Amino acid sequence: MKIQIINGPNLNLLGVREKSIYGDSSFDTYLEQLRHQYTDVIIEYFQSNKEGELIDKLHEIGFSYDGVILNAGAYTHTSIAIADAIAAINTPVIEVHISNVHKREAFRHHSMLAASCVGVIAGFGLNSYRLALEHYLTR
Ligand code: DQA
């Protein structure tokens, strides 16, 4: 099984950025643990702060991978272009968030992407990614 994790803007700063919201682990450290725990799964990782690069990655892997786990960061709330890319590809996409966006500012309550995704997982810290992976393994 091949799974692509895609992180959007500012998620390169995990472990440094707003630790009370996003925790103090870097994504690289978390990814290492995840790969160690799921040795049978190929877990690829891509991060970009640029909307177009996130779309290019979805196009690149969207007809060959088994699943995408996407944290589009703030683009979740704004990007029709990423929503269209998710709808255009064959690979299913799960939207994830580290924080519980529904407990936060009103502008974070709406997702432009959710309707094009399999489902949404939010609020479980970095564990949100593992829960999404479990879906692909057990469906
Ligand atoms: C986030 C929530 C978004 O609202 C925010 O813009 C992020 C991170 C999360 O993982 O909790 O960058 O997607």
UniProtKB/TrEMBL annotation:
Keyword Membrane carried by entry: yes
EC number(s) given by UniProt: 4.2.1.10
UniProt similarity note: Belongs to the type-II 3-dehydroquinase family.
One family name in Pfam for this protein: DHquinase_II
Pathway(s) it belongs to: Metabolic intermediate biosynthesis; chorismate biosynthesis; chorismate from D-erythrose 4-phosphate and phosphoenolpyruvate: step 3/7
Subunit description: Homododecamer.
GO biological-process terms attached to the record: amino acid biosynthetic process; aromatic amino acid family biosynthetic process; chorismate biosynthetic process; quinate catabolic process
GO MF annotations, alphabetized: 3-dehydroquinate dehydratase activity
Keyword list, A-Z: Amino-acid biosynthesis, Aromatic amino acid biosynthesis, Lyase, Membrane, Transmembrane, Transmembrane helix
Membrane-crossing segments per the record: 112-132
InterPro entries for the chain: DHquinase_II (IPR001874), DHquinase_II_CS (IPR018509), DHquinase_II_sf (IPR036441)
Gene: aroQ
Function: Catalyzes a trans-dehydration via an enolate intermediate.
Protein name, entry field: 3-dehydroquinate dehydratase
Organism: Mucilaginibacter agri
NCBIfam families referenced in this protein's UniProt entry, alphabetically: aroQ, PRK05395.1-2, PRK05395.1-3, PRK05395.1-4
Residues with site note (Transition state stabilizer): R17
UniProt xrefs under PANTHER family: CATABOLIC 3-DEHYDROQUINASE (PTHR21272)
Gene3D superfamilies from the UniProt entry: Dehydroquinase, class II
Ligand binding (substrate): N71, H77, D84, I98, S99, R108
Catalytic activity: 3-dehydroquinate = 3-dehydroshikimate + H2O
SUPFAM superfamilies: Type II 3-dehydroquinate dehydratase
Lineage per the UniProt record: Bacteria, Pseudomonadati, Bacteroidota, Sphingobacteriia, Sphingobacteriales
Active site (record annotation): Y22 (proton acceptor), H97 (proton donor)
